UniProtKB/TrEMBL annotation:
Residues 70-81 have a biased composition (Low complexity). It comes from the Bacteria. The keyword Transmembrane helix applies. Residues 49-91 are annotated as: Disordered. The keyword Transmembrane applies. Residues 60-69 have a biased composition (Pro residues). This is Cytochrome C oxidase assembly protein. Keywords: Membrane, Transmembrane, Transmembrane helix. It comes from Paracoccus denitrificans (strain Pd 1222). The chain crosses the membrane at residues 20-39. The lineage of its organism: Bacteria, Pseudomonadati, Pseudomonadota, Alphaproteobacteria, Rhodobacterales.
Length: 91
């Protein structure tokens, strides 16, 4: 049995060249996304997502912070608040 060489049709040649072009474009896109990911990770920035809420890490420092309270007041309903009432009653 003799094997005859198969002649490739012009349509197959064009389709192959388009597929190779698409492969190159897709590989370039994957390389771009990978490169951007590597750069973002190696920069070491704080990678926090935007969740539509203000974050303390993003706010500028307060130039005039409030003075610490010398006599802190306990929240109503806590054990410390009831101790304060009983101590005042004992005095």
């Amino acid at each position: 049995m003799v094997m005859l060489p198969q002649v490739e049709h012009e349509l197959h040649k064009r389709r192959r060249s388009r597929n190779i072009g698409l492969l190159v474009v897709l590989l370039a896109f994957v390389a771009l996304v990978f490169g951007l990911s590597v750069v973002k990770i190696t920069q070491g920035d704080m990678m926090q997502g935007y969740d539509h809420r203000p974050r303390a890490s993003m706010l500028p420092p307060d130039p005039d912070p409030p003075a610490p309270n010398a006599a802190p007041v306990a929240a109503p309903g806590t054990p410390a608040a009831t101790q304060g009432v009983t101590q005042e009653a004992n005095q």
